[in-house]
Amino acid sequence: MDLNVVRSVQSADLIPKQWYNIVPDLPEPLPPMLKPDGSEAKPSDLEAIFPKSLIQQEFSTERFIDIPDEVRELYAGLGRPTPLLRAYRLERFLGTPAKIYYKYEGVLPTGSHKINTAVAQAYFNKLEGVERLVTETGAGQWGSALALAGSLFGLRVRVYMVRVSYEQKPYRRILMQLYGAEVIPSPSPYTKAGRSILAADPNHPGSLGIAISEAIEDALTNPKTKYSLGSVLNHVLLHQTVIGLEALRQLEAMGEELPDYVIGCVGGGSNFAGIAYPFYYEAIVRGRKRDIKLVAVEPKAIPSMTRGVYTYDYGDTAGLTPLLKMYTVGHRYSPPPIHAGGLRYHGVAPTLAILVKNDVVKPVAYHQTEVFKAAEIFAKTEGVVPAPESAHAVKAVIDIALEAKKRNEKTVILFNMSGHGLLDLGGYQEYLEGRLRDFEPKEIDLSYLPKINQAK
Ligand SMILES: *Cc1c(COP(=O)(O)O)cnc(C)c1O
Questions:
Q1: 129-143, pLDDT tens digit by residue?
Q2: Is 0.90 surpassed by the pTM of this model?
Q3: 293-299 and 309-314 strand pairing
Q4: Cα-to-centroid distance, 102 and ligand 1 (Å)
Q5: Which CATH architecture does the domain made up of 42-66+114-234 adopt?
Q6: Residues forming CATH 3.40.50.1100 domain(s) in the chain
Q7: Could you give the CA distance from residue 159 to residue 153 in angstroms, rounded to a whole number?
Q8: What pLDDT score does 456 carry?
Q9: Which of 103, 121, 141 to mutate to test the pocket of ligand 1 (most atoms within 8 A of CB)?
Q10: Atom 2 of ligand 1: nearest residue by CA position
Q11: 183 CA from centroid of ligand 1 (Å)
Q12: What is the pLDDT of residue 22?
């Protein structure tokens, strides 16, 4: 077997020198961010919460954007390029003629892809004299990535952590504290947004949307403080394209053509975009394989792409962010408590929404028990324990590989293993003990959304 090939494709010069920005290559123009009154948000409107360089990336229509040397060095120093592995034993277990490749982001220090944008964001903030970063975290993957990035660049970091996770998942909290971040359970008494929720319900379990509101308010009211977001926005997806750009070169080095399928799970869309957008560029924009299939996997309990509406909505629960046009189940949707905390978000990135709307990306949804079953198969054959989020992608991969078996097709499948699940063993325990249950989606009522939608 080709052990040397696997080794040879991890040399540091495979790390790209530029990120890929999909905005100029979308099948239709990206609808602008709007202010709540319906007027277009200007770059200067975001300066209170983001540094200018990241805002420039957010609005950029340049196809390629340079990765600063210092960020590239950190990518290498933290373990990039991540391995591109072939899941031979899973293939054999399934008896499929399909080839299954996965990009394994779980080898990075905080266990997921999120550090790719965290170090870039910390770098640009530092460059502009920012001293403190605030953010939110659900299960804790984003918070731990930003905590580490803050430590690497000498920035103070405060993380508003969804209260249920803060209480039920102490290990990620401890990891953030170990990296030097201040971790606050949200809703908290430190912000107006938090106080108003606590006044109505002192035991409120919190949500990602509430934590975002608190972090933004903190950034708006404190000096030399900026806000940092772990998904959804253009600049975040941009940074994550390092995943797919590496995978392209690694597949090539392994003598493989462009894959038939590229698959990733979707919370806000950053790891999916990270792996899929560079393949969209090569296969569709450059016309090398127009029938490539890009598959985005979400939980049935929060079905933004498969059952949501394409409309302007806020990024957070309190409605402090600009409005983004996306597939959404509504910013007041209260997500059922599935274990894939990173997928409990009401919307998806605007660029991904456009690809879904134009049938370029195919969305699929699964329940968590079938997802954990797939993860168990992966763990037993490949050894890697998938994060519950990534396990959604694994489930889709197994389904597609079994279809290929029925048709006896030598399909090539590439997916992103966005993170490992070694800090998610509580979910696996429930699964093994037969206590895991599925959650049907709640009713989607968008009548409270801003009136702008009727006009646009
Ligand atoms: C946060 C997270 C996700 C979901 O976020 P995206 O922005 O959609 O990528 C997926 N997988 C893992 C391991 C995560 O930590």
A1: 999 999 999 889 999
A2: yes
A3: unpaired
A4: 15
A5: 3-Layer(aba) Sandwich (3.40)
A6: 42-66+114-234, 79-111+236-440
A7: 16
A8: 46
A9: 141
A10: 342
A11: 20
A12: 98
